């Protein structure tokens, strides 16, 4: 039975595709320059074909990638067979972001469990800027992150976009990040987003004594053919999980949260009520 591509291989492929597009090359043109078929380029980009360090060096030369980025991608190619993918980064945009954006665009369903902040795919620009300011991100770096986050949200507007199920802790909605106006706009946006049949927002109420998500926030990405992934993100590190036993554990957590959270209609009512409270302030 063929081995399923690991998240590292899929992430490497996503970065290589982005580099090819930035170079203005088609798969056929890249293949011609490397002396390979365009099919081989395509299979590398979707993680279905392993790539040697020599092959990755050839592609990076064609795409004119040098320095630290070249070294990092060659190292990722060496480890592409390993399951899971952990990264620690000080950069303004982590290198895993290209992979995350690619995975979100390929996903058929996304489940985001949010305990601290509104999920990125549902944030307004004002809310995102407030988060950046509160966490000490420099303004020039913050604007880059705001643009990247808003760009990711385009997948929800496409005809073939994924469904999104978001579990948001009530405390997130009551924390006045950026002040009343920012939060009012954010809550209005959540209520409006809930009208999309592909978007389901469930609030985890404060009346609940506790729930499984207290273990920490996470995102589950489901695909039509590929293995599901779990994404965990922290301040200076992030992690992709692709082992079946890990995926099953997080899916079980989602099933438990479904029993704990308010239903979609109750969630909209609560978000509307909280927005009205902000307007009165």
UniProtKB/TrEMBL annotation:
It holds the Pfam family HTH_31. Residues 16-70 form the HTH cro/C1-type domain. GO terms for molecular function: DNA binding. InterPro entries: Cro/C1-type_HTH (IPR001387), DUF5753 (IPR043917), Lambda_DNA-bd_dom_sf (IPR010982). It comes from the Bacteria. This is Helix-turn-helix protein. SMART domains: HTH_XRE (SM00530).
